[in-house]
Amino acid sequence: MSNAHQEVIKQFLSLMENVDDRMKETFQNMHNGYPTEPLVRFLKARDWNVQKAHKMLIDCLQWRLQNEIDNILAKPIIPTDLYRAVRDSHLVGLSGYSKEGLPVIAIGAGLSTYDKASPTATEKYGQHISKCVKVLDMTGLKLSALNQIKLLTTIAKIDDLNYPEKTATYYIVNVPYIFSACWKTVKPLVQERTKRKIQVLQGCGRDELLKIMDYSSLPHFCRKEGSGSSRHSSNVAIDNCFSLEHTFHQQLYNYIKQQATLTATGLPIKQGSVHVDFPEPDPEGTKIAKTIESEFNRLADQNGLCNSLNGLKVDGD
Known about the structure:
By secondary structure, the chain is α/β, with parallel strands linked by helices. It folds into two domains: 3-67; 80-225 and 236-252, CATH 3.40.525.10. It is built from 14 helices and five strands. A five-stranded mixed sheet has the order 1-2-3-4-5, with no helix packed on it. A hairpin with a 5-residue loop joins strand 1 and strand 2. Helix 2 crosses helix 4 and helix 3 (36-45) crosses helix 4. The relative contact order is 0.13.
């Protein structure tokens, strides 16, 4: 890292010494003993402009306090069947680690039904791990997915503002025609920094992904051509990283229940929920969403499916 960057980091640290105690506490929970790491991420997200990065981090710390993010892993979703339903609708899981020790996060973007519902790596590899790689499975992506785009863009916005530069690379696999067509249209609108992180792979991406991870860390939908993103497998606990039976989700759920017993004064509210404030979309994000909407409608029109979309709008209710 250059001397200029080191100086900017020092300026940033100096500014953070002036925040109030509550912000200092949530900042400590964020960096887990590595205070420079989040500063560098926020600086990169704002092109090393210390004033803009400072504002972005302060906004993030306020968001964490307002939404009680520090205690979010002490709020279990019960009963277990309800948690299982969430897992089935939000297909996200940890399939393993890359050869560099980065967690491999698998996301079933095509089959997720969002409208229905890293300290471990540091210890394991003996070095601070602050990034991950994400593998997005587009199996099952359909024109009718337009009604999910508004929520997906909102989630992405929260991620960008509060967890910037956490993802080293996005690998997109099992790509159907509809995604290819939309990506060609949207790609010119994406920031160059983000665009460099996105790699669209052929087929299930197995051969390319094996260059950066072992076979055991491949998401189940990448292990053979045509495997798809099945929610069920012959050995769910081993193969399907989306399943509640997978080791990662079992450990996570047990950890959340343990934290609840340590911090709660009484039993968790049955079928309770967590509410998180989300930001208004910025002009760039709105433009991208509108472009995707337009492309979806164009493709639907080509395939005679206009009526099936029922006039869905990305930014509408």
